[in-house]
Prior knowledge:
Layout: H1 3-14, H2 30-61, H3 68-103, H4 119-124, H5 132-146
Helix pairs in contact: 2-3
Main location: cytoplasm
Function: Transcription factor that acts by binding directly to the RNA polymerase (RNAP). Required for negative regulation of rRNA expression and positive regulation of several amino acid biosynthesis promoters. Also required for regulation of fis expression.
Coiled coil: 44-105
Amino acid sequence: MPEGTRKLGVLAIAGVDPYQEKPGEEYMNEAQLGHFKKILEAWRNQLREEVDRTLNHMQDEAANFPDPVDRAAQEEEFSLELRARDRERKLIKKIEKTMQKIEEDDFGFCESCGIEIGIRRLEARPTADQCIDCKTLAEIKEKQMAG
C-alpha cells in the first residue's frame, strides 16, 4: 500500500500518527501496546459519537408524512443509517475484543499460526487477528466454499 494511503487510513480511523519503530525495539512492548490502545479507544469513541448523532437525527427528523413517497424516502434513509450503525456496532464489539487482547498481553500475534502480525498491518487494521498469509489463505478457502 502506498505510504500516503496507509497514513491517511490511520489518521482517518483515530487521528493518531503512525507508530515510529526504534531500531532493535521489542515487538509489542509497552509503547506499542499503548499506541494501539490509544488508536482503538479513539476509534471506538468516534463510532459511539456517530451512533448518538444518528439517534438524534432520527428523533429530530422523524415525521409522519401524509405522502407515501415522502414517507418511503424517509424510511429508506433511516434504513440505510440503521444498517450502517449495525455494522459500526459490530465493529465496536471487535474493537472491545481487541482491547481485551491488549489487556491480556495477547495482542499483535496471529490467532492461526502465532507469528507477529506486524506493526504496519496493525496500523492499517488495528483489529486484525491474523497475519497477512493466514488471512489470505482464509479468504481463499472462504471463496472456494461459497463458490
